[in-house]
TrEMBL record:
InterPro entries given in the database record: Homeodomain-like_sf, HTH_AraC, HTH_AraC-typ_CS, PchR_regulatory_protein, Tscrpt_reg_AraC-type_HTH
Identification of the protein by name: HTH araC/xylS-type domain-containing protein
GO terms of molecular function: DNA-binding transcription factor activity; sequence-specific DNA binding
Annotated SUPFAM superfamilies: Homeodomain-like
PANTHER family associated with the record: REGULATORY PROTEIN PCHR (PTHR47893)
Signal peptide (UniProt feature, chain positions): none
Domain HTH araC/xylS-type: 210-308
Key words of the record: DNA-binding, Transcription, Transcription regulation
Organism: Dialister pneumosintes
Length: 310
């Protein structure tokens, strides 16, 4: 595995892929690809990453840029942390300013990501002028660390990704960003109960939930009891189950299954290990049980998935 360094990730400016903005090539030691960026305004920037990594690549940062980031993953394979989850194509992921970040990218599938960075000033101005009620739950929405699949948003993001008209791109992108924020406002209004539930978890409990998820990330191939997780969180089992489900929108069992399946996916496409061996590595003594759960998440048998990817 190689760790990506910000200081040498980009090397040379390349022929531009659009008639505006700037395109740069990726350092060949990390893989093959490009990075495109365009400053829509002082408070808004958009990026495209298209990278085929050479090997497992780790990127981590104590804090991201000082903007709200909306990342639309078009393709790619990998695992994000804080909390642990798979990179999921055709989904939107949100990041708050200066948020801690860690991700491992897998080399088998090209990463294509279109992202938008908005300053706190841009968000505050939009909220004040257009959706004052949005301010009540926007922060909680951004704290939900899921990959969102919102079809109307996807359509807008694809329009932005493919846009190449050289006439007034700043006007086009600004209008589309307002559309995105409007759709997020609608989504928040429709899902207030879930978002408010996140708001009701205090900081101490949030920290405890993160400790639970980190423990599962590091011990996913062991049998982990609810009693053990409750002790780590210093909670009763019932409280721990309720808060974990509320915050992660899944049970601890599903969280561990997702982690196991992600590791299994990587082993299937990057090693010659047998299905039984992979099953044992990720924590299943019964290969049939492993196969059943893998099919539930990926829609096919592990052997079929391996042959398709190869």
């Amino acid at each position: 595995m190689i760790e990506i360094q910000r200081t040498d990730f980009l090397v040379d400016e390349a022929p531009n892929i659009k008639p505006f903005g700037h395109t740069y090539t990726i350092n060949p030691k990390y893989g093959k690809g490009l990075y495109w960026t365009f400053d829509v305004s002082d408070n808004c920037v958009i990026h495209i990453h298209k990278i085929k990594f050479k090997e497992e690549s780790l990127y981590q940062s104590d804090e991201l840029i000082d903007k709200y980031t909306f990342a639309f993953y078009i393709s790619g394979s990998g695992n994000e942390f804080f909390p642990y989850q798979n990179l999921t194509p055709h989904t939107l992921r949100t990041y708050k300013p200066k948020e801690r970040y860690k991700v491992i990218y897998h080399p088998q599938i090209e990463l294509i990501c279109f992202s938008i960075g908005l300053s706190p000033f841009f968000i505050e101005k939009y909220v004040k002028l257009h959706h004052k009620k949005l301010a009540l739950h926007l922060d909680s929405f951004l704290n939900i660390k899921n990959h969102f699949f919102i079809p109307k948003l996807n359509k807008i993001l694809y329009e932005m990704y493919y846009y190449k008209d050289s006439s007034s791109p700043d006007v086009f992108f600004t209008a589309k960003i307002y559309e995105i924020l409007s759709e997020i406002s609608s989504y928040i209004n429709k899902n207030k109960k879930t978002i408010v539930a996140h708001q009701q978890i205090n900081k101490e409990d949030l920290l405890a939930l993160q400790q639970i998820s980190q423990y599962i990330d590091e011990h996913y191939n062991f049998d982990i009891s609810l009693d053990m997780l409750a002790k780590i969180a210093c909670m009763s089992v019932s409280k721990m189950k309720i808060l974990f489900k509320r915050f992660y929108d899944m049970t601890t069992v599903e969280y561990m299954q997702r982690k196991r399946m992600s590791v299994a996916e990587h082993l299937l496409i990057s090693t010659p290990l047998t299905i039984a061996e992979i099953s044992n590595i990720v924590g299943y003594t019964n290969p049939s049980r492993f196969t059943e759960i893998f099919k539930r998440y990926y829609g096919c048998l592990p052997s079929t998935y391996r042959s398709t990817q190869n």
